Amino acid sequence: MSEAKIQIKNLYKIFGKNPSAAMEHVKNGVGKDELLEKHNHVLGLKDINLDIQSESIQVVMGLSGSGKSTLIRHINRLIEPTDGSVTVDGDEVLKMNEEQLRSFRRSKTAMVFQRFALLPHKTVLQNTIFGLHIQNIAEEDAKKSALRWIERVGLSGYEDKYPQHLSGGMQQRVGLARALTNDGDILLMDEAFSALDPLIRKDMQDILLELQDELQKTVVFITHDLDEALKIGDRIAILKDGIMDQEGIPAEILLDPKTKYVKDFVEDVNRARVIKAKHIMSEINGQDLNGAMPIDQDEFIDRFIDKVIAEKPDNLLIQDKDKKNVGFLSTQKLSEILKR
Amino acid sequence: MSNFLTEFPEMPNKQFREFKKGVDASYKDFAREWGDFIDAMFEPLLKMLVFFEKTLIATPWPIFMIVLLGLTYWGSRSYKLVIGTFLAFVFIGYFRMWDETMSTIAIILTSVIMSVVIGLPTGIAMSRSDRTQSIVTPILDIMQTMPPFVYLIPIVMLMGIGKIPGLIAVVIYAIPPLIRLTNLGIREVDKEALEAADAFGATKKQKLYQVQLPLALPTIFAGINQTIMMALAMVIIASMIGVKGLGQPVLQSIYNQYFTKGVLYGLAIVIVAIVFDRVSQSYGQRIQKHRSGKIV
Predict the structure, then answer these.
(1) Are A329 and A277 in contact (CB under 8 A)?
(2) Considering only CB atoms, which residues of chain B are within 8 Å of chain A?
């Protein structure tokens, strides 16, 4: 695997008056509750290690207070860590001076916020253009690019409206258009859809996935909603009390939860809807696969389960896009996975 | 012993007299030495004030009326206010108070401009540093609670009687709300909006001009409105040290018990205050109409 786009190493964040002193306690194994009670410091993040691959969607999931919003703010250094390292394209973000950091934020990252964070005195167009505007990019070019993204998120005709005139879903489209207009490789989304109604949230998720297909950005997506995480994440990291409990592809998290916390999280998920054939297939090792039913590796179980029940094959032959055989899955294993 | 308990151990009379004398003498020396220099420093301000006053008085009343009503409409977009302003100034003119009103408007204009020029940057500086805030706040407290008559004394000793000392007194009295509300307005700006500006790589200056000041504007406007009102209230007191305008006749009426004259000029001050207040407030509300929009 190539070098990760974003590398987070041994990241610690402690909130309080004297974080470096509290750091000693944490390294000696003092937990979040004890640190607060005895030393009056809040443990934000503890020893976070995370590699985020280029052009993928990395979800960071956790309940409120788990440190997920703190973590995402370390990537563009809106929050200073107590200890550790964050590199983007090999550059250490934490060593940048003010000027370098500013240009890093302008050219490489863009952020979408939970409560939209639009500027109420600016119109939709002016908000969308904001990132380019502060870079002193020529008005004409900036406007052209902003209008293109306003159209892509479906807000054409609203360019001159003020944010207050729009519904929440529409405001977040402006937030998304603003981030995309900035055209950085990295899109940081802090609970971007959490404040929206379920239906509108689904719309926005679809828009994001559709855009991602085309743009191939590196997306870091924070959420507290497992369904959302499973739907859009290429990989999912689960945070609890500032500690990373587990990290992996969605199927791994579902099939092999490492801690009780994760187990509780994934218990009620409909597996057939989130596990793809490729996640559970086995390697072909000379088995007799005569009469096996061919299945595309990217199909979700619930898309082919009816066919399996109808035809009752012994094995499924898993194929990639070009119909090349990449693995197989016995019907027995499939039923076990669904029963568990 | 009983003496000690019943009478506060105070400074002996002789020493106290000498203490007062000493302070007075050194301040007088300071005034003698620096008075001319300080006068010269405020010369441009005097010029501005005199220019406003002369221009306003020299302007034919119909033209003044048209400009005033035009500004009222531009500021408030309300015909009711325009008609009210018209009637109010007809009253002022008909009862022979026109020139004094012009003088008062000139000094209000000058002192509000001065207050904004000094107050806005001070308020911004306060909002950026808790240290600055903790230094400026007690100074503002003093400015607001010290009776104006008390700080009139050193000002008059330093600069004599005239327009400039009056102007300074008005500004001292009127500037604190503007500074306070500018500070408050900027500190209250939505943290998320600021964070977004940071995340997109805005400089400090860009954040100030594109996020903080625009979002604080309604609060700052409330401060300017307060400053106008307080400047008007100060006009009477300032007239004691030679500021021309609506205050002087009121003062005369107090000394001579001219009831009608006093009431008329008092009413004129009220009228100017109400017109300024309504116009500046409705302007303040109009520029932030987009904040209270309906959902489409």
Answers:
(1) yes
(2) 190, 192-193, 195-203, 206, 210-211, 214-215, 217, 288, 290-296
The encoded tokens of residue A262 equal: 């994760």
| Overall residue count recorded for chain A in this entry | 340
Sole residue written with tokens 């902003």? A146
Q: B296 and A165: CB-CB below 8 Å? A: yes
Sheet containing A293-296: which strands, arranged edge to edge? A293-296, A315-319, A325-330
Shortest distance between the Cα of A22 and any Cα of chain B, in A, equals: 26
Number of other CB atoms surrounding residue A107 within 10 Å: 14
Which of chain A's residues have a Cβ under 8 Å away from the Cβ of B202?
134
Instruction: Quote the percentage of chain A above a pLDDT of 90.
Output: 57
B chain contacts of residue A120, beta-carbon cutoff 8 Å: 193, 215, 290-291
Q: Is the minimum CB–CB distance between A171 and chain B shorter than 8 Å?
A: no
| B123-149: pLDDT as tens digits | 999 999 999 999 999 999 999 999 988
Q: Does A166 contact B288 at a Cβ distance shorter than 8 Å?
A: no
Q: Nearest CB to A134: which of B201, B214, B215? A: B201
**CATH number, domain containing residue A298:** 3.90.1280.20
The closest CB to that of B199, out of A105, A116, A162, belongs to A105
What is the extent of the structural domain holding A328? 274-339
Q: pLDDT tens digit string along A136-155?
A: 999 999 999 999 999 999 99
Interval A280-302: pLDDT, tens: 888 888 777 788 888 888 888 88
> Residue A293 domain-assigned?
yes
Q: Is A113 on the interface with B (CB under 8 A)?
A: yes
Residue A205 lies in a domain: no
Write out residues 224-243 of A within 8 Å (CB-CB) of B. Answer: none
What 3-state DSSP class applies to A15? strand
Q: Distance between CA B260 and CA B266 in Å, rounded?
A: 10
Give the rounded distance of the alpha carbon of B293 from its chain centre: 33
Q: What residue ranges define each of the domains in chain B, with the CATH number in brackets?
A: 42-288 (1.10.3720.10)
Q: Is A165 on the interface with B (CB under 8 A)?
A: yes
How large is the ipTM?
Answer: 0.85
- Give the pLDDT of residue B6: 86
Domain-located, residue A331: yes
In a domain, A113, yes or no: no
